[in-house]
Amino acid sequence: MKYCSTCGEQVSQKIPSGDNRLRYVCDSCETIHxxxxxxxxxxxxxxxxKILLCKRAIEPRLGSWTLPAGYMENNETTLxxxxxxxxxxxxxxxxNMSLYCTYSIRHISQVYMMYRGTLVDGFSAAGEExxxxxxxxxxxxxxxxxxxxxxxxxxxxxxTDKRNNNFKLRDGEIYRDxxxxxxxxxxPA
Amino acid sequence: MKYCSTCGEQVSQKIPSGDNRLRYVCDSCETIHxxxxxxxxxxxxxxxxKILLCKRAIEPRLGSWTLPAGYMENNETTLxxxxxxxxxxxxxxxxNMSLYCTYSIRHISQVYMMYRGTLVDGFSAAGEExxxxxxxxxxxxxxxxxxxxxxxxxxxxxxTDKRNNNFKLRDGEIYRDxxxxxxxxxxPA
Lengths: 189, 189
Fold this sequence. Notes:
2 copies of one chain form a homodimer. By secondary structure, chain A is mainly beta. In chain A, 15% of the residues lie in helices and 39% in strands. At the A-B interface, helix 1 and strand 8 of A face helix 1 and strand 8 of B.
């Protein structure tokens, strides 16, 4: 951020009075421009003993497999965002949705909120951001071709809870340590 | 938003190619400026059969009672944000925190993520944004002086689940209907 979106003049990084963090503050009109994490909402869509994955048609990780998910928009709920993304990416209608897991990904300031639900008629088809959609059993999941660590972790939790027939809400965090290695912490359920 | 934060030129509302929503797009450098919901993280801090409330020292709703909560910052987790806000607003240290409920508040594009935890030593004291802090039993909660509908709903759920000794994650939404009346939907637990 270099310029104020309110008046167009330059911004500087300052700690505003009463605050304790550097913020972008306009040198002219003094508007404080806060920056906050974004929510990514998505879904594990179930059909029989399978779940839906999408092959990404866009960067990053073009060609890898992912759960349908994307940025939550203003004026919607997390549930609506998860349903919308599933429809946009996979033409998938999902019912009986309930929140299943959340992950805070600190180093990129994202919070994933993943729902679980039933894929209507087991039907899906690639949307604009997908090359292909497919239903996978646990045995067939392409673990080495998953798009992001958060997708791998969500699926690992899911299949563990499914085996135990005990779906509790899961909360956790993912970050890079000093050596840039990805670290996953699943909080106690 | 009137000006581009990247180059300082004017922005217009357009639907970018491949998108289906109006976005602020720079007339000059074509940067797309997405706007997304913000997360507010907070905590129900328990001590014996009481919970902690803070009397607001700031607008909106100065003088009303609320749970410690505030905007999540970049590069932190939702749990860290809830703990930080509890410390900033009430000098409260909270342990054994677990995610308890989330509410999407559509009309103001906020997502609340509320934790539940144990208030260390039962100690609290007003931080800069609070006039006063106090521990309340269910019978003493000042229901008519609570700051926001989401706080009232969170506490109603909490005391119901506490009576049943069955804390399940709760997810729901709050919005204004056409007559501007606040509507609350708690999804099935």
